[in-house]
Structure formats: structure tokens, C-alpha cells
Amino acid sequence: MKATFLLSSLKLSGGVNVVFELANGLLSRGHEITLATPKSLHHDTAALNPKIKILQGSVIPGKSNDLFRNLKVVTELNRLLPPADILIATHTPTTVFTKIDGKNVYKGKPVWLLMDYPGMFQGQPYNLFLLNHALKWHDKTIAISRYLQEWAKRKRPSADVSLLRI
Fold first, then answer.
1. In what side-by-side order are the strands of the sheet with 2-6?
2. Who's near 15: CB < 8 A, 6+ residues apart?
3. Is the pLDDT confidence value at 103 over 50?
């Protein structure tokens, strides 16, 4: 299986550590793994197996209301993404990439690794919009906690939401 994880950046955080652990585990099971991210000023990939391919754009994302810059980021990453079996959004802002790629250019089955919650995006209407609508853009959602799984099922009862098991 070929899997591409979409990340907002490679700056170490709890979510990036989860993605690295999943990517390393999938690679050890014989899968081909790619990580794709916009240009990031911070990246620490020491915990990542060097056989995992990293694609990084050249445009640094702007604030969520900087639509012109962020459209450039989306366009650039769309061109960089290789065809894969699954395309995994890992942070709510990356769900827009699976929406675009899953509908316009088939680059993988759209899957959302749900790690975010509404309180993370207070005062960020764009990201709250994505969080509240992205469930319908993905064939499958994998939540990292029971709380997020239950939140997603309440938000969209018809969504295919599983609990992550490592």
C-alpha cells in the first residue's frame, strides 16, 4: 500500500509524533510512506525512518485569513503529491487538501486522522468551519481518542469513524 500523510508542518508536536509513529510502523510492515507538508521553518525528523519520503513545498502558509498565500500552498502541494492508495489528512487545515485531491485529481482515498477538537480553534472561524465540515469529505475518519470518535459520530452520524489502534 502507498500512503501519503498530509501535515501542516514538521515542527514536533504531539500530533506530528503520532504521525511519525504511524508512518514508521507502516513502513516496517512493507508499505510505501510519504509525508507532504508546506514549507516549514521548523522540522525535526530524527524520529522518522530515513526511508520515508518527505515532500516539502516552497511556500510558507500564511494566517488562516491570508487566502491568496494559502491558495498558493494548496496549489503547490496538489502538484507535489504522488498517487497513493490513501491520502491522510492529519491536522484540520490539511483536510482541504484531501477534499481537493480526492475530488479533482485522484491521489488516494481520502482519510482523516482526527486529532483536533473544537477548543483548539476558538477565534479561528476558517479552521472551525473545516473541523465542522471535513467529516463529509473523507471516506473514512480515524479518531485518536474515544472522545473524538464520539464527537465525530454526534457531528455526522453517517460518517465512517473508527478508533485508532496502534
1. 53-56, 32-37, 2-6, 86-89, 109-114, 140-143, 161-163
2. 90, 91, 115, 116
3. no
Residue pair 32/64 in contact (Cβ under 8 Å)? The answer is no
- Residues 33 and 53: beta-carbon distance below 8 Å: yes
The 10 Å Cβ neighbour count of residue 107 is 23
- Output the nine-digit C-alpha cell for 114: 482526527
Is-contact 92 126, C-beta < 8 A? no
Q: Which residues contact 144 (CB under 8 A, 6 or more apart)?
A: 18, 113, 114, 115, 164
**Which tens digits make up the pLDDT trace of 27-83?**
999 999 999 988 877 778 889 999 999 999 887 777 766 667 777 777 788 788 888
Hey, which residues does 5 pair with through a beta bridge? 35, 88
Crossing angle, helix 67-80 and helix 95-104, to 10 degrees? 60
Distance CA 145, CA 114 (A): 9
